[in-house]
Each structure stands twice: as C-alpha cells, then as structure tokens.
Amino acid sequence: MGNAGSPTDPPTDPFAAVPLPTRPVRPGARGIAPVSGNGSRLPPGVSPDIFGPSAPAQPSGAAGQTGRPGGLPPVTPAAQPWRVAAQPESSLQQRTLRDEPSLAPGGGPARPEPSSSGEENPPPRRLRRIIAAVLALAVLVGAAYAAAAIFMSGKMLPGTRVHGVPIGGLTATEAADRLRDELADDEAKDVVVRAAGKKYAIDPGKAGLEFDVVSTIDQASSGFPSPTQVWRALTATTDLKPKVSVEPELLDSTVEALARKVDVEVREGAVTFEGLKPVAVTPASGRKLDREAAARAIEKAFLGPAREVELPVSTVRPEVTAAIVKRVAADADKAVAGPVTLTHSGRQARLDAETLAAHLSFEPDGAGGMRPAFDAANAVATVEKKLVDPALAPREPTFEIVGGKPRLVPGRRGKGVDDHRLAQSVARMVAEGGSRTIPVTLTTVQPRISEAEARGLGIKEKISEFTTNFPCCQPRVTNIRTIARLLDGYLVKPGEIFSLNGVIGQRDTARGFVPAPMIQNGRLIDSVGGGISQFVTTMYNAVFFGGLEDVQHVPHEFYISRYPAGRESTVSWPAPDFRWKNDSKYGVLVKTSTTTTSVTVSFWSTRRYDVESVSSDRYDFTPFENATGSGPDCIPMTGQQGFSIDVTRIFKQDDREVKRETRKVVYKPETNLTCNSTPASDSEREQAD
C-alpha cells in the first residue's frame, strides 16, 4: 500500500536494505567486520567485486606501489588469442559499459528504445500475417492466370484480328475458314497503281498474288499462353498483317507489261540525211519504271491498308542538248560534199555521196558532244566485189530445194573488207577533213551463219508463198528479176530483222539495175532500180501469210490495181525501207523465182500459224484533181479517186483463232496529169509503181 511505509518485499539488490553510513565509519566499529586494506565495512563473505571495478586506491605505502582495494592481489587478465593494443582506461570503461546490459532505475533491465520512426519493432505475429497475405494473393493471381491460360489454350488469343476480321477465340481451322470467307472479296479486288500521271488496274490473280491464310495464322500463338500474352489478350488488341504468297514469274511479267505502257525511250540527239540534206533529230527526255521497286509496291498494296499505290518512275535525260545537235547539223553537209574512193592492191571502188549519206550519222560521244558514225558493213556490201577477188570471197550457207525438200549447201570463210577499220577511217575523214581516197585492208570473214547453225534452224517446209504478175519486156522487169536473184537463198536467223535496204543497199548499174519509172512526191520519175516495189509487195505478202512480224512497210500513195488493196508496199533509197522480223525460234529461208511475167517469193521454215486475210469494203472516197505538165521528164498519169480500206490478218492454230491484227490503209487520189495534152495509157501506167 502506498501509506504502509517501506515495502516488505525484498529489494532486487540484496544490499539495498543496508543503510549506508552517512559519515566515515571507524575501523573496528561494532556490527561491521573490518576488511583490511580499504577501510569499508561489508557483510561477511561479500566481495566488493560485485559492485564493479573500484577506483584505484591511492598509494599508501612506498611510492609506485599499486594493488586492488583492501590490499588484495591484482586480478589476472584473461588470456587473449592475439595481442591487443593497450587502450586508455577510460576507453575500456566505456566499452565495458556499452557491452553490459543497461539497467533501469531500481535495478531492472532497460526497455527497448523506440525505432527511428517512433514505433517499436513489429512483433513476429504481425510479420507472419503480412507474409501470409502476400502468399495468398500470389496463389489467387496464379490460379486466375492458370484458369485464363487453360481457357485460351489451343485457340487464337482474344483480341486477335487480321485485316479487321476478328479471329480471337477460334481454333486455327475456324480462323482459316473465317478469313477465307471474309477476305474473299478483298482478295479479288484490283490493285490500282499510279505511274507517270496515269492509273492502271492490276488483277492480283494474273499478277501471281494470293492471300496466304496458313502463314497469316502461323503468326498468332495458339498454344499455352504466357502471362504476358494472357494480359495482352485481356487488355489490348493484336492486329496481324495478312501474309501474301507470290509467283515471281507472273509478277515480273505483269510489271514488264506495265513498264511497256509507262516507259518512254529517251530520244538522243542525232543528225542523219534525207538524200544529201542533213536532218537534225531533236533530243527528248524519256522515262523508265523501276521494275524491282514496282513489284515490291504492288505486293505491299495487295491486302494492304491502301489498295492504290504510286510507282517509282525516273526521268532519263538525253546525252546532248538541242543546241549542240543544231550546230552539228549546220556543218554536216560538208561530209557528203563528194564521193569516197576505196582502194586495195590496184583495185578501187567508189562510194558515191548518196551511199555515204545513207550510212553516215552523228551521234553522242559520251562527253556532251557528237561524233560521226559510219555503217561500213552495209555501205561496202554493194562494192566489196570490186575490191576482193571473187575466188577469195566468203560464201554463206544456204538451202536448195530438191524434190520438194530443202537440202543444205555449206558455206565457207573467205576474205572481205575490214569494215571496222573502214568505219574508223571514214569517221576520221569526216571529223578532221583530208583526202577522200581511203585505202582498205582485208581480213578473214566468217559466214553470218555456220554450217552447224544452219542445220539447226528448222528449215523443213514451205510456210508461205505469194506471186504477182506484170507485163513482160519492160525495164522495170529487169530490176525485179535482179533483186530476186540477189535475195534467193538468203537466210534470216531467229530474232533477226530483215531490212531490204540494209541487205541490198543502193541500187546501181554495176549489179544489173537499170533506170525505170517510180512514184516520188506524187509524180512518176525515172530512177535506177525503179519497179522493185513489185518485188517488195510480193515479199510483204509472203511475210503476211507466213505469220511473221511486220516491222515497217509503207503502202503506195496511190492504189495500183495489180496489187491486193491494203496489202502492198513500196521502197526507195535510202528511205522508206521495208523491214520484217523473224519472231519465231526457227530460221527462215527466202526462195525466189521469176518468169517473163511474174515473180514469186516463198518462205521455208517450220509452220506456226495458218493465216487468213479479211478485207473490208472500200470507204471514204476522195476525188482526184486534174493537172497539166510538159517537158521531157513529164510522165502522164490517169486520175483515180482515193479511198480507205481495213485489212485484218487472222492467225490460227489447229483451226482455232489465236489472235488477229487489223490495219487501216488510206490511198490518196491520183492526179489526172496530162503531158502535152496526151494522158498516159493503161500500159504506160503499168510500167510505174
């Protein structure tokens, strides 16, 4: 009780009840056992060490003598495993006080100090509750993930779409079926491309583009999903790009067909000749479709976000400017001011100015200027026999027809003019001036076609033949028979373009041509080689019915009744030319024959087509005019009206039409020309083309 005085419970300290003396106690006082050496009084058997170390006693004897209180011997220090540096006594006392448990007032243990946050350390029970809660939450989350993953396993993850079509929650088979159904219309839509300001529609199927459903679905995970995949499936949307399968050959073919519509060939500046008059060819820029980039763009646009795409087209600049071309053309007439004489070992031949001009041109030199270029091989073909001994000349392989079957006649190599050196010599003469007499050198010349190559050309049957008739005994007949002889047995290789002017060259009297009437600028004039347009018309019809490619043919200005309307052609030197291409994989053998009133051209090869010709009625008639002429060069003409006609060539294989071509031909009205009041008779008109 609070007022009961001193407590009866024993104190924690057994000596706390012993009253301490308030004044010094004399040694030997009653009730206190004397302890020698320190003057204090303790109960019997109690050591003063229980109160901790005492202050060192003051020396009482000789100087420097030390010891424990009461004269006890010093305490032996505890053995140390290693030597410890001596420390001050105050430091040792502080360490001892730190190491010993603190006592609260009254002798009890001290309470733990609060933490820095002001709270006492949490008891173990609370920590266990926190850990248990975390573990429980982890178990719940894991259970939720496992349940969702099991539900989603084996299917497209929720939120998955392809081109806007949802396939989440479907199996791979179900997703494939849905995509095929939903995207069928999009897959069939044309891809629209823009190039050079125009739009073109591309059929994906013909371009080799197809929706690859399997590869598209393979992008999506349908196995057991990871936690990240589950979270994304629950919180976001996954858009897969449609995969496209491509047939490269079809796509390349489509791009190439598109390029033929887009590309414009650059026109390089050049100077050529019409007769002896220089003609400037003005340069013009071209354009070219980037094939590889176009293919990638078309593939990307198919089933892409935009079905219309711009294709890359680059501009191709000419090498020379129009000003340079104009300047070169102004001086080009000096190059053809006269003939060029070729010499070799006492032999000589002359290239007249017209022949020189027909094979001379000026082209870009690669450095912004222009240089002369001379086609020596074709130019010298007409005069080579004058420079080379015929016994040494090469001979081309050919075929002769024996018993209705072609039989090979082998060729041989020989000597001929080195046309490469001749071309350099003529170009140097034109550029630098100097002598117009040029020595030529001979070289070994191989036939255009080897014997082995000739055997593999597929010359086995007649594929076409055409005949035209004429009155006998006229000068033009000589020219027709001469050109037929020169071309008999000529072989045209696969892919080669036959040019009549290129093969025959300028018609001259040295090879048997004579002057005869021909049409020029709407009038009849005499010209060496006149009348060979009838041979050209005959060959054109052999090309027509042989199913070969017509490259260049020019109908007569006026209709001539001995030819089929719309299926005839003229030719002159150096222009217009007559050209056709052997677009087959077989060679074509040209065989000719003549009588006094007809010429026949037949082609031998391997037949590809049966060809039919269908002509429309004549239409758009135009009246003729009357005119009067005089002088020795006037050749009268009987007037006839002009008209138009359409001619269709139909190609068939096994009696089935595979293609057709239609050409419109327009004839001008023929002037009714009177010379000295005497019109030309029908027989006179028959002499001219």
UniProtKB/TrEMBL annotation:
UniProt feature, compositional bias: Polar residues: 671-681
A Pfam family this chain is assigned to: PG_binding_4
Region (Disordered): 1-124, 670-689
Swiss-Prot/TrEMBL keywords: Membrane, Transmembrane, Transmembrane helix
Transmembrane segments: 130-152
Domain called YoaR-like putative peptidoglycan binding: residue spans: 217-303
Compositionally biased region (Low complexity): 52-65
Source organism, top-level taxon: Bacteria
Protein name: Vancomycin resistance protein YoaR
Source organism (scientific name): Streptosporangium sandarakinum
